[in-house]
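During the no-cost extension, the postdoctoral fellow (Dr. R.K.) reprocessed legacy sequence entries with the updated structure-token encoder. One reprocessed record is reproduced below for audit purposes.
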Amino acid sequence: MIEIVFSDSACGSFKVAQHYGKGKYQGGCIGVGISHADGSKPTKEEVEAARREAEEKARLAWESAVPLGGNTADIYGFNLMMSVGDISENQPGIKRKQTLEHLYSVFPNDVGRQAAQEVFKRAKEDLKRVQEQAAMGESLRIWYSNQPDEMCGLYWFMEQLNQWKVPSKQIAIVKLPEWEADEKGNIVQKSGWGEVAPEEWHRYLALQKPVLPVFEQSFASHWQKLQKENAPLRATLNGQLISAPETLYDDFILREIAAEGEEFQEVKVIGRVLGKYQLGISDSWVAFRIEEMIREGKLEAVSEVAEDMPVYHRVLKRCTYRL
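Re-encoded structure tokens follow.
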């Protein structure tokens, strides 16, 4: 079975899940983070208590996990971020590479460009391998959610399978639930498969659904429609993947800026936009929209960025007129 996901985080977690829980729990390095609202430093006792709690949580997760089994080489992660930028190419080409380089450019010292090139190269190579395996009759399972990149990934990959004339009987899909209840009865919402822990993957196998021929054709046709529209963004609205303008998320960003004082840390605004609204977009996109607001004279940068930090680690200032 070929497993298809659409983020590096999901791919890594899925690979760990194949053997997670097998054998006796061995423990390992565990990092904990503690902060106080008043900014005071945590005591050694607090740090130790947090470490013990994290260790116990990791042990219980291991012991309750059901290893998925399988071969890690059968898991492919296409982190192509198809919700942003030009999608007119039938195969990932120079335009997708340029979009990835743009999104990764928030990282310093050419690290972003190199990372984007690696993601693009791996996707091209993996796509060829998947095509070869599918042609040999291998079954495929696609994992997706309402997160824009994963929803785009589903439609894009279905269009690829349609091009390759892969019969729908070889294809299955698994959609991440929008809401779940945890063991304590709390409602939990995950924005994408990248938030699923290794010990959790086995629970979702029961959600697998076959793909009917009419669905494969419908997915492919809808992606072709989006390609013709070729909008700056694609978003999920009421479960439907639609084309959208680049200003789509600006109101959420402006709302969080308005809650700040005259000067504020850009990274905190970005963090709140991503965490509070669960839009399923990247920090890079929020940073680019804030950069556009700077170019329009709505904001002003009042501090420099350290060479080893992303560009959004700086202090911004609201200009005199209202945003």
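The chain is about 40% helix and 15% strand. The domain at 250-318 is CATH 1.10.10.10 (Arc Repressor Mutant, subunit A). The remaining legacy entries will be reprocessed before the final report is submitted.
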